[in-house]
Amino acid sequence: MSIAGSPLARKLGAFVALTEKELAVLEGFHQCRQTFDPGVDLVRQGQLGQSAFILADGWVCSYKLLPGGTRQIVDFQVPGDFLGLRSVLFRTSDHNAETMTTVEVSEVSSNDLIDAFATTPRLAMAVLWAASRDEAMVVEHLVDIGRRNALERTAHFLLELGARLKLVGLGTKEGYACPLSQSMLADALGLTGVHINRVLRQLREKGLLTFRTGQVIFDDFERLVKLADFDTAYLDQDGPLLRQ
Amino acid sequence: MSIAGSPLARKLGAFVALTEKELAVLEGFHQCRQTFDPGVDLVRQGQLGQSAFILADGWVCSYKLLPGGTRQIVDFQVPGDFLGLRSVLFRTSDHNAETMTTVEVSEVSSNDLIDAFATTPRLAMAVLWAASRDEAMVVEHLVDIGRRNALERTAHFLLELGARLKLVGLGTKEGYACPLSQSMLADALGLTGVHINRVLRQLREKGLLTFRTGQVIFDDFERLVKLADFDTAYLDQDGPLLRQ
DNA sequence: CTGACGAATTGATCTGAGTCAGTTTTCGGA
DNA sequence: TCCGAAAACTGACTCAGATCAATTCGTCAG
Question: Is the C-beta of residue B145 closer than 7 Å to nucleic acid chain D?
Fold first, then answer.
């Protein structure tokens, strides 16, 4: 696959039409391809001078640890996503990132990234632009946790994850492959594992959604969207705002 | 005050050392100064082709409405903050923004902003970079709501707001002026107005913090930080990553 | 000074989600 | 094919925070 056709290039191209030169710099990011096992920390809270990563395959989750031993999962990264960007921009990381599956990434050193941003600022813009879209997802997540009950919250979150995977060709209206365990889902939604289990049973018994090891199946997409008050439009974007 | 000394220029300068030309473009943003009364919507959910605003004075809050009539406040904007950026980047807004006080803003039209981004990409970078820092705050907010109980959550949130205001010279370790009503605080923290009232009483009775109309007073900063598990370091940043 | 309206405050009661303490299922490795 | 560990599942009980229903306070217009 040419770099121009990679998930990342496709994503960035949605914001800024990239020139040959910019694509070449992007290509340079992919020098250092690596594979990691599940359960490895790629980014650690408080650590200095870390690299960023571009996720080519597999899933990663970003989370914060709390003193009580609990954690809050803030976001999941799927293929095509950048990760550890903030830990480069601010020189120190404010969160952890852990591989959930076997993962393939391109590691981009802090210096390379900053150099690239300095020489091809339009590319920098595209990357930060994409980060800004990811923020929209974190905001939706915030609303889930703040103002939706466990049932709506779970439904909404799994729909959103599906919408996001559809963008990179990894999901459909029928469902998607999902390596989350129930307790990870709990940590993402601010619930306990026990309660998530009961909520998933309810969703199953109501014929709305089946969450099984490695697979999310939308049994009744329409009713699910209605229950969760899910807005299907907010991820759309019709063309780059900045032309070459 | 020269443009180079404005809160926004100061903030952006922390990321990217701005050139004369870039400062001039920033200056251009301030052509269209306006004043709004409290309770006015600056940005409306779902509206197309909106302007962005630079907040010069007063407070604004960004929130999402839910079908049940409840709302979740996602963030507050204080002087020096950009707002409505995402509604320009994505052509349509995913949230509302309402003035909380009398407010002074500079309106920057969608087209002017995109043109400026195209001609001075380093400035664009600085703006998006600042947006990325704001996201760190939304993440902290997410953790508050997901994994802290009402007391810790309220304490943590008010400490964070204080830290942020200190950056723009509007707060100290003693406290800060704060135009939030109890029910706004409730909408931000995912609680009810009734419960926030009880929590604020507890904080007052424990001699930790006093929240009164228009004023937050830290009665015992140290103990408050400890209760809330507040990290005082995460807002620090020592110099621009990109030089002129 | 007075009425009125919104914000703050309080008490009583209810309930969604947490906690505790298991049992059962799944699945990879010997 | 059997074993052990982790994940999924379940029931009984508790509690933090919601809900409901007043009352009080503050402030601004008349």
Answer: no
| Residue B172 CB neighbour total at 10 angstroms | 12
Spatial distance between the Cα atoms of A72 and B111, rounded to a whole number of angstroms: 39
Q: Of how many residues is chain A composed?
A: 244
Rg (CA), chain B: 18
Q: What is the pLDDT at residue A87?
A: 85
* pLDDT tens-digit map of B212-235: 878 999 999 999 999 999 987 755
Choose among A129, A101, A81, A96: nearest CA to A36: A101
Is A192's CB less than 7 Å from nucleic acid strand C? yes
Pinpoint the alpha helices (H) of B57-192. 85-89, 110-119, 121-147, 150-167, 182-189
Please list, residue by residue across B137-169, b when 16 or more beta carbons sit within 10 angstroms of its beta carbon and e when fewer do.
bbbbbbbbbbbbebbbbbbbbbbbbbbbbebee
CA of A23 to C1' of C6 (A): 58
Q: Which bases of strand D sit closer than 7 A to a protein CB?
A: 7-12, 16-21, 26-27
Q: For chain B, list the strands marked E by DSSP.
A: 33-36, 41-43, 52-57, 60-65, 71-77, 82-83, 96-99, 103-108, 175-178, 209-212, 214-218
